[in-house]
């Protein structure tokens, strides 16, 4: 078992036992009850030292395999958000090692992201080798051979789950007309400013081939070369238009530096260095935050800032293919200057009486008119508009900053909305 008194041991230069254990046999043993018990015993130490382990892991692995820097978000590495996200994922896996059903949603979300990045089965042993070695090097004598053996089996179990899940996504992409796996060259056909911060990019395949259909709410990964880093950097962006088979549209907010966080590396490249006609790498559409087109009840779309992007796709799909369903579009934005797609939403509401809105401005200028540009001043307060949003059999879709979505989820549940009717999209640091 894990000796917690030795958990703060200094870093070691190598962990050959860990590596040897992971690579010991192509046929890893199934995760036994004894393994599960050992994994459970490591949960308190993972809670305390998880970030130290994962921070060491990323440095170790990326030094040994610099080619994988083309996969990982360097900004999230610099701020520590990616090691923190991985530490939480490892802790959650250990905590639920005997109840993997609790991780179904997380596996789907991460698996879709992996697929959009083109993660391959041969990369999983690399991650496993360096993760186990990092546990040993950070925790030292607290990690004995039984712990290493248990975690080797546990990691292989998790790797197999992801590999199988992602294999299904890749197979589906290959079998879909116009679909592909990996990266495909696209051209920026048009750039359209939508606000002071957001530009829409209309992307068309360089090969002139067909595009696969996508579900409203899904995203693509785009990859561009960042000269100052010397690597490619991928980012995920929601598709902000409906599926027309001719182009993909993403609407990108230009991010600026905040505190210790670096300026948005990719958003700045897209805005400033990618003119019309330029090319970039694009993934097949993925993502499990999708509109339920089979349902018949009302739809409440709640977004904050650039979280409006998947909601625009959902709104377009609803008015085109399900005009009988009532839609309430709830959106919060700082002010009129950064309010994207305002005219588009106004046209939709004018032409579709089943669609209504509740627009919140944090700051109201002298020229803005209540009921024309916006409906409410301040933050979204669902309690104050419950007559608009608490509709029978409604489904709720949330997208925006994580604290925003957590607040809206909590407030919806406080108003009596069942959790299974609330769906949300989370972008940001992940395990890849």
UniProtKB/TrEMBL annotation:
What are the Globin domain coordinates in residue numbering? 30-167
What UniProt keywords are attached to this protein's entry?
Detoxification, Dioxygenase, FAD, Flavoprotein, Heme, Iron, Metal-binding, NAD, NADP, Oxidoreductase
Signal sequence range: none
- Asked if the keyword DNA-binding belongs to this entry, the reply reads no
- Asked if the Swiss-Prot or TrEMBL record annotates the protein with the keyword Protein transport, the reply is no
**One Pfam family matching this protein:** Globin
Q: Please give the Gene3D superfamilies that the UniProt record associates with this protein.
A: Globins (1.10.490.10), Nucleotide-binding domain of ferredoxin-NADP reductase (FNR) module (3.40.50.80), Translation factors (2.40.30.10)
Q: Which InterPro entries match?
A: FAD-bd_FR_type, FNR_nucleotide-bd, Globin, Globin-like_sf, Globin/Proto, Hmp, OxRdtase_FAD/NAD-bd, Riboflavin_synthase-like_b-brl
Q: What is its EC number?
A: 1.14.12.17
Q: Which cofactor does it need?
A: heme b; FAD
Catalyzed reaction equations: 2 nitric oxide + NADPH + 2 O2 = 2 nitrate + NADP(+) + H(+); 2 nitric oxide + NADH + 2 O2 = 2 nitrate + NAD(+) + H(+)
According to its UniProt entry, the protein's GO biological process terms are: cellular response to nitrosative stress; nitric oxide catabolic process; response to toxic substance
Q: Indicate the enzyme's highest-level EC class.
A: oxidoreductase
| Ranges of residues in domain FAD-binding FR-type | 181-292
Single GO term (MF) = FAD binding
Task of the protein: In the presence of oxygen and NADH, it has NADH oxidase activity, which leads to the generation of superoxide and H(2)O(2). Under anaerobic conditions, it also exhibits nitric oxide reductase and FAD reductase activities. However, all these reactions are much lower than NOD activity.
HAMAP family per record: Hmp
NCBIfam families to which the protein is assigned, alphabetical: PRK13289.1 (NF009805)
Similarity section: Belongs to the globin family. Two-domain flavohemoproteins subfamily. In the C-terminal section; belongs to the flavoprotein pyridine nucleotide cytochrome reductase family.
**Name of the featured protein:** Flavohemoprotein
